[in-house]
Amino acid sequence: MAEILGVLFPSLVALYLIVNTQLDSYRKRIRFLEVKVDALIKHTGIEFDDSTLVPVEVHKAVKAGQRLKAIRLYRKITGAGLKEASDVIDGLVKNT
What we know:
By secondary structure, the chain is an all-alpha fold. The protein has two domains: 1-47; 49-96, no CATH class. 80% of the residues lie in helices and 0% in strands. The chain contains four helices and no strands. It has helices spanning 2-44, 56-63, 67-78, 82-95. Helix 2 packs antiparallel against helix 3 (67-78) and helix 3 (67-78) packs across helix 4. The longest helix has 43 residues, at 2-44. The radius of gyration is 19 Å and the shape is elongated.
């Protein structure tokens, strides 16, 4: 059993590192594309209601009057920056 673990463990660690690196690359690319789409929306003057894209946990925190918790949750779930998260939450607060 120890021999099997001795062989498998380094392989699993290497696989984890490869997958994690690839996921980070995808996250960065997705964030880059989101910024581009946001710029295009702003430039064209298209109005876009993204409140439906906000996770349920964030909506619950907003409805409970927990603005800071909602911002933290939004940032954690989406990877958004503080300004973007604050703007989204402020928009949700206005609409509720």
